[in-house]
Amino acid sequence: MRDLVLAQQFTDANIIIATQDLPGNINHKIKEENYKIETLQSNNIEEVLKLIEHYSIEIIIIDHYGIDYDYEKELKLKTKVQIFVLDDTYEKHHCDILLNHNVYAEQSKYKGLIPDDCELRCGSEYTLLRQEFIIEKQNRRQINRPPKSCLVIMGGADHTNLNTKILKVLENFPEISAHVVTTTANQCLNELESFAKDKTNIKIHINTKQMAKLMNSSDFAIVTPSVTMNEVLFMEMPFIAIKTADNQNDMYEYLISTRQQSMCLYDSEVLKKHIEYMVNIEGIELINFTEMTLQEKETVLEWRNTLSIRKWMFNKEEIKLIQHLNYIESLKKQSNKLYFLVKKQGIDIGVIDFTEINNTEKTANLGIYANPSIKGVGSILLETIINFAFIKLHVLRLISEAFDNNFPAIKLYKKFMFRTIASRALNQQNVVTMELTNENW
């Protein structure tokens, strides 16, 4: 589809699209756009050379994972044609123009992989979007909270039949209707349609021309981190990404680095937890400390300085407002720390924080304190911490520390399956270190 979007940029050109007639192809889409098709029998360069000579081709656009540097170099030597390559995975190319239109694309990663005089086009500035998405975004509707509809996009072929597996998980959320986008190339289509039969909250969309409208009418998506993700991000949709192929690695890593809900492989139990987090039955809202109003900053400081809270802090001294504000400002430059004011249904209930976030070791330390005027919110705050840590931060180990005489805190951690792993002395007191692993979540 992206090639058809790119073709529209060559308004005065005579465009010929050369493709193989492989199972699952979308050649019908090419015909709908009235482009001439030349059917290739293989990736043999001789076939392409004949087409270049026959049509006096001036520029060839290559979008094919199986065509490499050597192929392109031979093509250039034999024809002098201008070579325009689409690349998603930072491969070596012999080309005049290289386009990586994905949001994650970084020019620096192509150093040494392309000729010095190659024109490099990278990132969201060059993202190939169909006009329908641009139009729909102008009419973006308010997303329902909690969500009422889910758009499932597992690719046109869906070789592992994830669509049906996802729909079975969604059965745990009867309040959510599902729209599944697929194509006639889906070899599991009969099973999918059989599962959806007589289920009024599931609709299958085959070879749809309404993708942008479906995104605009859905509250969140379950999608692969493929090129479709560029459209999902452009539409500012909440989503859960499930990686299904190696060529999605770069997009997946980008989503992880930006703390998006993403899964490196399909797991029904993990997906259920992701959907529960998306549904957010408790009505929890997290306000980053760096985005709080002055009044909220003052409220949080007042809580922290309350004796019943600070007596359990490692630093028991009262903090002045200017110190508090300066620390919050410093958080904008610290990627290993995150602090949130937690609201439940609009009411400020406490603070959670993550420090010593280690993306390599996939660990983080937690902090927690409740609004001293509200009782019984400790479990809500800790559950919020755990879900954010494993779903958004993608940590494998979550670490807590508490003085050994802070019995309520230790009891709460044990309730959520934290286990003691160490102890140490601090200021003539004993500190207990506990951990919760992703496996025990």
List low-pLDDT spans. Answer: none
Domain unit count = 3
Q: Which architecture of the largest domain does the CATH hierarchy give at level 2?
A: 3-Layer(aba) Sandwich
Q: Taking all residues together, what is the mean pLDDT? A: 93
Work out the helicity level: 25-40%
CATH topology of the largest domain: Aminopeptidase
SS strand fraction: 15-25%
CATH top-level class of the largest domain: Alpha Beta
Rg over CA atoms, rounded to whole Å, is 26 Å
Number of helices: 16
Shape: elongated
**Major sheet: arrangement of strands:** 13-14-15-16-17-19-18
Helix/strand/pairing category: alpha/beta
Q: For the report, how would you describe the main beta sheet? A: 7 strands, mixed
Distance between the termini: 40 Å
Q: CATH homologous superfamily of the largest domain - what is it?
A: Gcn5-related N-acetyltransferase (GNAT)
| Counted beta strands | 19
